[in-house]
Amino acid sequence: MEDLFEFQNVCYRYPGHKQLALQDVNVRLPEGEKIAVVGRNGAGKSTLFLHCNGLYRPLCGQVLFRGRPLAYDRASLKRLRQQVGMIFQNPDNQLFSASVAQDISFGPLNLGLSEAETRRRVLEAAEMCDIIHVLDRPTHSLSGGEKTRVALAGVLAMQPEVLVADEPLASLDPWMRLTFFEILQRFYDRGKTIIMATHNLSVVRYWASYVIVLQAGRVVFSGTPKELLTNRVVLEQTELSRVWWKVDPGFDEETRAPATSPGAEDGRLKETRNFHFGEDGDWSI
Ligand SMILES: Nc1ncnc2c1ncn2[C@@H]1O[C@H](COP(=O)(O)OP(=O)(O)OP(=O)(O)O)[C@@H](O)[C@H]1O
Ligand SMILES: [Mg+2]
């Protein structure tokens, strides 16, 4: 697995705050994978993501993209953001144009595409995200879920190499979640990388091919879902065992540990890799 991003000894502190939001983060984000990033509220997921598109700059250490340290001049950041599409946790921080259509057009026009090609991409992305009917609306007048859809459409219209999505599921209805996972699958099938922060452990288990666990600003685990699910020490240390065993039939309630090696003997993980999200009705934890 080639690294798409590599964080080397990264730390970050928000201006005016004493506490480090990221502490000595060393982690590789492999290319072409479906990466789930998990951790409790305040663990540092969003802060990590905002380093991926250069919006935040490490206080110490460095971030590498495809083996090269990020550069923070305007031109480099523009190039990076054309390849790294980001859906912010709060889409209000992302949508700024007068109308939805203008917002989705912003990226393609910035890429230097023609008006005709831009229009084609906007319509295609809007169709995929089912927001054709709001294209003329001002972005501020949309509902939370509609804003997330517009943010997704804006990213898709750019056709980036990487999709970084910060808890996109929270505001999407179950129908759009299904569509969202279909869109992600198409993206993944083209060899692209998805990095998604989520609190939904079913997504970690059944969707992700790689998982990163953050705890208090540190990366405490990175590896496959199977490696996480069978690592009792990490599950206990992160307290994932407290919430996971209750919802996961693969867990032994007595020991609060995986009853079997998921995916090894019983082929569960393999089978559920093709899991069609939403079929098991397990949305809540
Ligand atoms: N704008 C900010 N100013 C100051 N501190 C911040 C800011 N944003 C986040 N923090 C702090 O940085 C730490 C990491 O926050 P971050 O938003 O990255 O967590 P998170 O894992 O994304 O949490 P959540 O699950 O709630 O989205 C927390 O201690 C948080 O209080
Ligand atoms: Mg967050």
How would you name the CATH homologous superfamily? P-loop containing nucleotide triphosphate hydrolases
Q: Which fold does the CATH topology refer to?
A: Rossmann fold
Q: In CATH terms, what is the architecture?
A: 3-Layer(aba) Sandwich
Helix content: 25-40%
Average predicted local confidence, pLDDT: 87
> Which CATH class applies here?
Alpha Beta
Number of domains: 1
Summing up helix and strand content along with how strands pair, one would put the structural category as alpha/beta
Distance between the termini: 31 Å
Number of helices: 11
Question: Quick one: biggest sheet?
Answer: 6 strands, mixed
Number of strands: 12
| Radius of gyration, whole Å | 19 Å
List the ligand species.
Answer: adenosine-5'-triphosphate, magnesium ion
| Order of SSEs | EEEHEEHEHHHEHEHEEHHHEEH
What do these coordinates show?
The protein is of the alpha/beta class and 285 residues long. It has one domain: 3-Layer(aba) Sandwich (Rossmann fold), CATH 3.40.50. It contains 11 helices and 12 strands. A 6-stranded mixed β-sheet has the order 6-7-8-3-9-10, sandwiched between helices. A 4-stranded antiparallel β-sheet has the order 2-1-4-5, covered by helices on one side. Strands 11-12 form a two-stranded antiparallel ribbon. Helix 6 links the parallel strand 7 and strand 8. Helix 3 crosses helix 4. The two termini are 31 Å apart. The relative contact order is 0.14. The C terminus is likely disordered. Bound molecules: adenosine-5'-triphosphate and magnesium ion (MG). Adenosine-5'-triphosphate binds next to helix 1.
